[in-house]
Amino acid sequence: MKLEGKTAVVTGASSGIGAATVRQLREARVCVVGGARRVERVEADIALVLDVTEPESCAAFVNEAVAQLGGIDILFNNAGLALGRYPFWESNEEDEARVLHTNVDGVMRMTRLCLPHIRDEGHIVFMGSIAGRQAYPNGASYVASKFAVRGFVYALREDLLGRPIRITTVDAGLVETEFSIVRFKGDVETADSVYAGIDPITPDEVADCVMFALTRPAHVNVDELVIKTLRQSSGARVVRREE
Ligand code: NAP
Questions:
Q1: Which residue range(s) make up the domain with 109?
Q2: Has 146 been annotated as catalytic?
Q3: What confidence score (pLDDT) does residue 242 get?
Q4: In this model, does residue 108 exceed pLDDT 90?
Q5: How many Å apart are CA 59 and CA 49, to the nearest integer?
Q6: Residue of the nearest CA to atom 41 in ligand 1?
Q7: 232 lines ligand 1 (CB under 6 A)
Q8: Does 180 map to a domain?
């Protein structure tokens, strides 16, 4: 499918996978509205402030995006985060709420608000994770949130069956972005150690997967793509290069 002239909405466009996907979409001549809280970092055709945890922010964002774009061909539900890496008995109300409100409520809300504006032959892409396919230790709220995204997508596929809207989930393993800096609450050294000696996936390599799904013929739905560095078998197991 040719993407030239289409419109896209990308959440979490200020960093990492979202920013890389905005870049690649624009290179394919898609007109992109990018949203994030740090709107000053969003390099889209139209950058709008968005907090997916806030219903009013999401409604204002979608209204303005639709007013500017006329309609939506592509929605990339990408905004998300993890907080902390600890056994569940060390978890707390605040981290759990933020992870679930962002990764689950935010994704459902943005999908619900955008759906009436998604045109025929539209495509909704979800940023999942291998954490949503297989649990790993010390990440319960993130694992729960990404399993929830997968459940939501499966249910949405049932509801949209028969309508000309494609749905894809990209489930990634370790991708070097600001994800771990956020997870470890600004501890850059610990964040860096996550990616040491494993040749992590790059944000552009995930964006490549998104672009692959988007550019298949209109009748071809790529349901799920799973992408990991060769040095990783699961969320729990990596083999690091001696450095
Ligand atoms: P990142 O570099 O930290 O980017 C996260 C993006 O989400 C930022 O643009 C951030 O923007 C946005 N975001 C967070 N909370 C938000 C909120 N309340 N409202 C709006 N935007 C919000 O991390 P990333 O790796 O690119 O993560 C993108 C997605 O990939 C997430 O869903 C993550 O779970 C998933 N993922 C990441 C990995 C990995 O290893 N990195 C692996 C699998 C899946 P602001 O802070 O400016 O709002």
A1: 7-174+201-227
A2: yes
A3: 82
A4: yes
A5: 11
A6: 175
A7: no
A8: no
